[in-house]
Predict the structure of ComF family protein.
Amino acid sequence: MSTKIKSRVDCSVRVGLPGHCAFCLGKTPLGSPWCEACFEELPWNRVACARCAEPLARPAELCGHCLRHAPSFDVARAPLRYEEASQALLQRFKFGAQPRAGILLATLFAHSREGALPEALVAVPTHPQRRRERGFDHSVWLTRELSRQLGVPCRRAWRERDTPTQRGLTRRARRGNVRGAFRVAPGLPAHVALVDDVMTTGSTLSVLADACREAGAQHVEAWAMTRTPRGI
């Protein structure tokens, strides 16, 4: 099934089922895309490192990685652990090209976000070759949806080279793999947020944060819809 047909089918389902939970299809409060029970059962990332949002077994201000080598971004916000319902939702969006799943991910993030809004959003860019293979740029798509929901403008970044996959690499190797891979046009506002679908070690977001600081940003947040638990 083509991406265009999938999008049309998904849109029809979204319009055709008003007032039903996106997870269990049960009744929902007026205007809500989820029911209270499903919302509470989502794998919320409530116990996490204050700097990189890595899920922790018990409350701690910073994880061991951030104590040893802090990332280049100032703070990460990742409301959901990459598990169960959130993992399935992200996979439907990223690999199934289902816009309803992407809208729901962005809505969950916006609903849980706290603090002052940034002045601009910057998507973690996908190399053109990867974008052609997948059919769309998932990070740019999420960034535009968050921009629409939050009223924050987008600024563009470029991936200068197609880096090998990060899967299976150590934390140090991941950072080296993407070092120097990004370019951002100068003139960024002081406060920006980087947007990606999932954060594993934060290496990619940290390297992009370096590029944003070179482009003028002073306070850089890392936003991810989900965060992988330790050891994944």
The domain at 45-227 is CATH 3.40.50 (Rossmann fold). The two ends are 31 Å apart (CA to CA). The longest helix spans residues 3-16. The chain has nine helices and eight strands.
